[in-house]
């Protein structure tokens, strides 16, 4: 059985960390004489085109349902090197075809929240040798959404944020300080540095949700986050008791409060003590419907979306990872 590696890298991820990480991995591939092909993104959204081309030319293939690789002489492995946004784009393109395409993911972004939940603190080299030892990929829960107004569907592996979270992410993505913070390994402060202006710009908004057989209306919502694991914003544990391997996902809601109280809540979040606050509402779910009738800033896996009204249904699905 021979492995062929298809390396899809975003060189610009993490302020150039993508290019550095790819260089490390390619050095290993050359040293051990692995067969590999390199695909580097050149502009935003290019990873979608590269993934689609790999699918259309059948250079990558779905993993057999029965898990039997005995008859396959060649095993193609898609290796994604980049940040959460790069992984998000690739997974969405794969899921448009099938849920059975496995991915090997090596972190190289600014936030790296999925890697933090999945790989812990492993180095790129450790991640590479780790997935090389696996004979069968792991089935990892991720989230699927369907937007009823536009009939758009997709997946996300980290978080969906509406309101304050979406506005903060938008500001962080546009900030020149983002890569500076992450170069100093204090990425979460790029998130916190945008809280002040975002708080005073974010108006409380009504949002209706349906889950666990009940309907609720949060009339003065500030922050509304659906998460697949503990982290968002570059390492902030918004849901400290969440596990990536859970058969549920988490919903966090924070409603209008005085700014001083919000600062105290974020202090508790930094200490992973937010569950003791009455202002922090959290729920464990398997299905969620979200109706936001006023246009709000929204992000998926740290990628900002156009602000508009939403009718979203969110459920669990899965992704295979080497």
Automatic annotation (TrEMBL):
Statement: the UniProt record of this protein carries the keyword Lipid metabolism: yes
Cofactor entry: Mg(2+)
Keywords, alphabetical: ATP-binding, Kinase, Lipid biosynthesis, Lipid metabolism, Nucleotide-binding, Phospholipid biosynthesis, Phospholipid metabolism, Transferase
Molecular function via GO: ATP binding; kinase activity
Domain of life: Bacteria
InterPro entries named in the record: ATP-NAD_kinase_N, Diacylglycerol_kinase_cat_dom, Lipid_Phosphate_FormReg, NAD/diacylglycerol_kinase_sf, YegS/DAGK_C
Statement: the UniProt record of this protein carries the keyword Lipid metabolism: yes
Domain DAGKc, residue spans: 1-151
GO biological process: phospholipid biosynthetic process
Family indicated by similarity: Belongs to the diacylglycerol/lipid kinase family.
Annotated protein name in UniProt: DAGKc domain-containing protein
Species the sequence originates in: Enterococcus sulfureus ATCC 49903
């Amino acid at each position: 059985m021979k492995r062929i590696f298809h390396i899809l890298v975003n060189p610009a991820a993490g302020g150039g960390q993508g290019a550095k990480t790819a260089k490390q991995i390619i050095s290993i591939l050359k040293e051990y004489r692995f067969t590999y092909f390199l695909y580097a993104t050149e502009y935003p959204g290019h990873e979608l085109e590269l993934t689609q081309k790999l699918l259309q030319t059948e250079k990558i293939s779905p993993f057999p349902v029965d898990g039997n690789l005995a008859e396959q002489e060649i095993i193609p492995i898609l290796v994604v090197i980049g940040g959460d946004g790069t992984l998000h784009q690739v997974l969405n393109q794969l899921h448009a075809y099938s849920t059975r395409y496995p991915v090997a993911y090596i972190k190289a972004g600014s936030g790296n929240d999925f890697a933090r939940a999945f790989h812990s603190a492993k180095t790129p080299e450790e991640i590479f040798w780790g997935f090389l030892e696996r004979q069968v990929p792991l089935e990892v829960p991720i989230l699927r959404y369907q937007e009823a107004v536009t009939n758009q569907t997709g997946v996300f592996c980290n978080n969906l944020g509406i309101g304050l979270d979406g506005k903060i992410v938008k500001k962080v993505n546009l900030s020149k300080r983002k890569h500076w913070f992450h170069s100093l390994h204090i990425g979460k402060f790029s998130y916190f540095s945008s809280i002040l202006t975002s708080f005073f710009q974010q108006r409380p908004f009504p949002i209706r949700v349906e889950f666990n057989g009940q309907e609720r209306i949060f009339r003065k919502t500030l922050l509304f986050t659906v998460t697949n694991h503990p982290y968002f914003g570059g390492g902030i544990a918004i849901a400290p008791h969440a596990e990536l391997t859970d058969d549920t996902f988490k919903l966090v809601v924070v409603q209008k409060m005085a700014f001083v109280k919000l600062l105290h809540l974020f202090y508790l979040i930094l200490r992973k003590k937010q569950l003791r606050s009455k202002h922090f509402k959290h729920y464990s779910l398997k299905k969620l419907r979200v109706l936001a009738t006023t246009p709000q800033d929204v992000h998926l896996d740290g990628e900002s979306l156009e602000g508009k009204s939403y009718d979203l249904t969110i459920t669990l699905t899965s992704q295979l990872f080497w």
